[in-house]
Amino acid sequence: MYFLFAWRYFKAKKSANAINIIAWISIVAIVIGTTALILVLSVFNGFEGLVKSLYSSFYTDLRISPKDGKTLSLSAAQLADLKKTGGVANVSLVVEEKAIVQQGDYQSVVYLKGVDETYRFISGVPSHLINGTYNLGSEAAPKLILGAGIEGALGIQADRNLLPLRIYLPRKSTTEQIDEMNDISSDTIQTSGAFIIQQDFDNKYALTNIDFVKRALRLPADAYTAVEISLRDPDQSKTIRDQLQKMMGSAYKVQDRYQQNQSLYAVMNLERWAIYGVLCLILIVAAFNMIGALTMLVLEKQKDISILHALGANRGFIQRIFLSEGFLLAIIGGVAGMLLAVLIVVLQIKFHLIPLTGGSFLIDYFPVELRWPDFLLVGATVFVIALVASWLPSRKAADRDFSLRSE
Fold it and tell me: What's the whole-model pTM score?
């Protein structure tokens, strides 16, 4: 019944045309605010999905590493148990260490990642090669796959480099003074290709054969830096992570993708809420217009309020009528804004209407992605703002003198 009164008041012609104008201005403001919120959150979702896909191309579903120190010991029985764990698709052994790669007068500090043959099945690196082939070589004749940034820093083309690179790796020293002969490994290595995923990886990592790295570092046969795991169903990562943590014990830490990139996800969530807070200011501006429109409507309907009171309507009934009027304005503006946002997002997905300027991006248009929680969040925000904006005018309407007045 309250919405029936509110709908009739909304449609009815007012004595002052300014009331209609202000009401429609408040609706338009809500439309703009709602559309802006959905669109910006959708663009953020698109970039978030793009960044996560790039990081997931390098980071695996699960990673086992030592809780303390740089290396872990993994027996053949433990490795067999890992492979037999339900939900585990592939297991890859990894040894990582900082190294210096030199080509003539050019050199670069890299994170050298020695991986086994299974790594190609758990990582997206093979699908992101920009030149050359995915070839890690062997222990005696290792090959190096460089990030594109390292390739540029060395001034080479990884698939055409005729001269081998010189690579230096630090070994664990047993004395305070460095012995160049025993504490630093120096070898030559050929390049086989280069990859491009994301700047953090392209400027940092180089891949090679794990046996070569273990020999250069003089590691025992059962010593590794980490174990990287791919799952049949990534959505089960939390359950399998807990299972593997229990199996491996407290000396190891088992991390999923979120935990491997915790700082990245934390920053992205902070940015998301910051954007949401800033854009809510548009809806707050719309709330001021709504307060003005409802206040003028209360003044317009003084006689109707008195009649309703005479017919037995109490203060709560009167207040709920004008609260419903505010909700009606919010519903019209909110639904229209959401529909407009959906239309724009669909057009952007199909036709890439808004391009990204510059030529250094992986894509040349703004990525967008609609998510239903965003609609719930924006809808709840519009509802709360409408409630706050309608409360004061509706309260004033309920507190008015309801005595009938003679015309």
Answer: 0.78
